[in-house]
């Protein structure tokens, strides 16, 4: 089997060489024959005549050999060259079709790259599918949204969970805060986005600082908590990448922090945010938040890494157990509240998930619209080529040959449209990235990479096949009738063609209406949301947030 | 002697067998077929050369252009191991076929 494959491939590679040599091969035969004839005593003229007669037609034999050596790939290449020529010869059609394909594929690729970055691509951490978020749910909440999405966790609960759990390698709490820096010495006064995290944060995500070390649970006590791990960006920006950064301090308005570590440049948390965290400090649970009293405050995000072999379902079951135990002690705290374990990726993407999926739906509609549009164009064009196709059929082209030629022309068109569309998409992504609000997760990670390009390629091929089917369906039926007849318009094929084109136009209009109505509704809801009456006058009102560090 | 037309599969078989006698070019193979069958069989060039190229694509033979006498180039074909195996297998089934035909044709 393998030797056959090797021989076949070798045969393919030497094809051109062998083709050129066939002439020599046959001529050798004839001349040998002539010699034999001469040896038998014929005259040179007669020898040659007899040799040629016995040989049969040289060109026939040559064609026969070439037929043996021609492969499917050859016919594909030939059809491709022909398609390119034909498309260049019909610039009106080609330009319009390319325009439609470029815009639709370009826009679709741009939107798809957004959706991919926000909800499809895995988080950039080691074994990121083992990362989960743990939160609380209020099962009786009135709004479905609140009932199903994770709430922040109270410190008391977090501490108990951490003490009692055995299904995670670590449980870490994250609290978003800001730190304002002084202006002297190191630069301008700045307000940095920061996070108070428990020491498990780094092991859970499996990240280690580039320089220095992360803080440990020893630092989670008052008096030892004034340490900080800073981001690579902050190190460069504020300390000029100085190598002695570990001896420096971060001078905040409330307190100074000793810098103990610098994170590597690739580490951005929250992932892909355009306002990344610059400082991580230890989270010290205030003493009044260590016991359950009458006031209930929740402000922590909790992330964890599943132990090997533990599934989310099992972790969920264990958390339910723990919650049941805690509820038995302090029932007032746990009325209607349960714990929920969710994959971290879903947790981060949840607020925007529905929007993203709707965008994908819109993309699908746009692509469909483009296909229908171009299919229609192709049908119009193909009816003008009916004569050419019938000629080819009469010369021996089979249905498959004709279908292949038509499909290859469509593929050439769609792949060209995709190539141009990628440029459009690239521009679109740049625009989108600056226009999307920073709260959408992973905005900064929106990029056109190989995944996206592969998806675009596949979409282009499917599109090409889809609208290429239109002329194929119409014209590859066994073609009967006079090749030279000028009266094609009166043929029955014309009726079928009209029906097909009419239904395509209907489909186009329908899809376009759906898209228009859909976007209209979107805009209407958006306008309504921004104009909701809050009941207070919010003009010229500022909000102030006070944090304790 | 009547010259019989050869079916494609049988021609392949003949070519493979001839090549067991040694590498050869198209003319040589054609001449041998005539010679060994004592003019009983004659392969037309329109079938022989396509058959040779097809055999090469299948891997049953290898070929090379070599300069021969008078500086003309000929394509010389050599049997491969796969070809030898195929020859054995198809020879056997051909014998079987011929035997069965004979039995039926000679039956009373």
Q: Would you give an account of this structure?
A:
Chain A is of the alpha+beta class and 549 residues long. Chain A folds into three domains: 15-69, no CATH class; 76-121 and 350-480 and 491-529, no CATH class; 141-335, no CATH class. Chain A has 16 helices and ten strands. Chain A has helices at 2-13, 15-39, 44-55, 58-69, 72-89, 91-120, 144-148, 155-164, 201-205, 232-239, 312-329, 344-384, 386-394, 399-435, 450-475, 492-530; strands at residues 131-138, 168-181, 190-197, 211-212, 227-230, 249-251, 256-262, 279-282, 301-306, 337-343. Chain A starts with a helix and ends in a 19-residue tail after the last helix. In chain A, 31% of the residues are buried. In chain B, strands 1-3-2 form a three-stranded antiparallel sheet. Chain B is an alpha+beta fold and 108 residues long. The mean pLDDT of chain B is 84. The radius of gyration of chain B is 15 Å and the shape is elongated. In chain B, helix 1 packs across helix 3 (45-58) and helix 1 packs across helix 4. Chain B has a single domain, classed as Arc Repressor Mutant, subunit A, CATH 1.10.10. Helix content of chain B is 59%, strand content 15%. Chain B has helices at 8-20, 26-36, 45-58, 81-106, and strands at 24-25, 61-67, 73-79. The chains are: A alpha+beta (549), B alpha+beta (108). At the A-B interface, helix 1, helix 2 and helix 4 of A face helix 2, helix 3 and strand 3 of B.
